[in-house]
């Protein structure tokens, strides 16, 4: 018996969930290091705040959409739990200045920003128009997030080193983007499908850069940057790609 379009979409979405699940857990070594050192100094909270905001957006989109939204809800619910745990650990071990800036960022983006968007879409729109507005917000936000890997690619070209861009990470993020692209395409949900075309493109570029520079002699950076900081940035921005619309994301 031939599988329907919806059945294939479920298969792609399920594989996307599995890969995204692993990507969400990829920063664990970073936070274990923070726990051992008893400080988060030298690490950035921005990727985790952005990943949490992305998961919140997709949960809201899925709840409004209702149809064929289960796989969006499962992975992004997990994402919210994990990112919240990461941020709690970060805040607990953060220096006073970093803690204050992280709390301020959370309030601006995840509380007031998301709250304003929630109220505006709930009371100023309804039905298909509300879903379209939320979908466009998700799409634009995730496309803007996809610009983040350009930072890592620039570092690779500038230093001729792939230390901060593991091939395995790039490979699985590319596969993840493909899974969510076909999930969105088969459901004719272009708010999910379109951003992942960028995820696929950047994933391919990263793998090409890896092959180009894997045996190159590294050049020193003029301004030293901690490997952990770059890895954390790479992992979590790409992890927003782990979300259906994004993703980065990152291992």
From TrEMBL:
Location of this chain's protein in the cell: Cell membrane; Endomembrane system
Where does the source fall among the domains of life? Eukaryota
Task: Give a yes or no for keyword Protease in this entry.
Answer: no
Known InterPro entries for this protein?
SWEET, SWEET_rpt
Q: Where are the transmembrane segments?
A: 6-25, 46-63, 69-93, 105-125, 131-152, 164-186, 192-213
Principal location listed in the UniProt entry: membrane
Keyword Glycoprotein recorded: no
What is this entry's stated membrane topology?
Answer: Multi-pass membrane protein
Q: Keywords assigned by UniProt?
A: Membrane, Repeat, Sugar transport, Transmembrane, Transmembrane helix, Transport
What functional role does this protein have?
Answer: Mediates both low-affinity uptake and efflux of sugar across the membrane.
The similarity annotation says: Belongs to the SWEET sugar transporter family.
Q: What is this protein called?
A: Bidirectional sugar transporter SWEET
Organism, by scientific name, is: Stylosanthes scabra
**Quick one: which gene encodes this?**
SWEET14_2
């Amino acid at each position: 018996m031939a599988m329907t379009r919806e059945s294939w979409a479920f298969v792609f979405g399920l594989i996307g969930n599995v890969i995204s699940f692993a990507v969400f857990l990829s920063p664990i070594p970073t936070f274990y290091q923070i726990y051992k050192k008893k400080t988060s100094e030298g690490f950035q909270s921005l990727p985790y705040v952005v990943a949490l905001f992305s998961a919140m957006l997709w949960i809201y989109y899925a709840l409004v959409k209702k149809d064929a939204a289960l796989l969006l809800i499962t992975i992004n619910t997990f994402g919210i739990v994990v990112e919240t745990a990461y941020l709690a650990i970060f805040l607990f071990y953060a220096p006073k200045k970093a803690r204050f800036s992280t709390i301020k960022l959370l309030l601006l983006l995840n509380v007031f920003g998301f709250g304003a968007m929630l109220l505006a879409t709930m009371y100023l729109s309804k039905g298909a128009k509300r879903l379209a507005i939320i979908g466009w917000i998700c799409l634009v936000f995730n496309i803007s997030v996809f610009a983040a890997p350009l930072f890592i690619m620039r570092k690779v070209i500038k230093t001729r080193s792939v230390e901060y861009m593991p091939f395995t990470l790039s490979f699985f993020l590319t596969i993840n983007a493909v899974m969510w692209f076909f999930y969105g395409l088969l459901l004719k949900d272009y708010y999910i499908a379109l951003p992942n075309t960028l995820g696929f493109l950047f994933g391919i570029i990263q793998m090409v850069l890896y092959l180009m520079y894997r045996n190159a002699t590294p050049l020193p950076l003029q301004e030293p940057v901690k490997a952990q900081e770059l890895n954390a940035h790479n992992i979590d921005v790409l992890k927003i790609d782990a979300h259906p619309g994004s993703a980065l994301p990152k291992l």
